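Folding problem:
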Amino acid sequence: MAPGNDTQISEFLLLGLSDEPELQPVIFGLFLSMYLIIVFGNLLIVLAVSSDSHLHTPMYFFLANLSFVDICFTSTVIPKMLWNIQTQSKVITYAGCITQMYFFLLFVESDIFLLTVMAYDRFVAICHPLNSMVIMNPRLCGLLVLVSWITCALNSLLESLMVLRLSFCTVLEIPHFFCELNQMIQLACSDTFLNNMVMYSGIMLLAGGPFVGILYSYSKIVSSICGISSAQGKYKAFSTCVSHLSVVSLFYCTGLGVYLSSAATQSSHSSATASVVYTVVTPMLNPFIYSLRNKDMKGALRRFLVEKT
């Protein structure tokens, strides 16, 4: 294949997490187990919120959307990885790679936006408790989710179209278990200046911007909690934020750790291994984080499971 002749590109090779044959059954079993936990755990939350009228509030509406996105998020990458291990193949078609990259970007950005919207909901509930139901009305909640989806879809489309303009050389091996945007750009042998500019601008606007919004919301929340006179009131207000804070910390810290570690070590395989934390582990832990410390959610899950048995 001649460099720059992108019309002949038909497939890429996903190198995965390890080249060791004896580790493939272990990786397959581990990721299959985690994927099943992610799907069933998050699906239970979606069904419990939908079926229980007590949970028809903005907080649980956004939580159900987050759980749905987590299912879609992991379904974009894990099934293909499991299929490749099972068939002992590393191939992904060019069209399949672009499609996977688009949906991965769409869902990971949607995750970020939903976490930001949930922080805003906690800010309204704690700082403006008397007007919270008026401010966070169903119309606004639906509009926030719709705007998030549209923004993420447009940015993902832009990033994908920018990759389509690239020419690739003879080395089409992606040292990852899915088609990650940065790895795709690094494989190109044409000029990638515009791609890098769009990618880093997108990270700053769609990851950095929401993170600043989350920090601002929680600075106001902490200030408001400190103004509560009773210790019981402070504990009750703070306890409504613990689950969300845990998920935000896990998502952002692991995501930031992946990029810092890859920049420090310059090892693509290390980056692929580290990215497992925010692409698989975080969506797997979300249902436990939101249900184990939440009496309303535990009650709704119990009622839902009893009705179905």
User: Anything to note?
Assistant: The chain has a mean pLDDT of 87. Strands lie at 11-14, 91-93, 173-174.
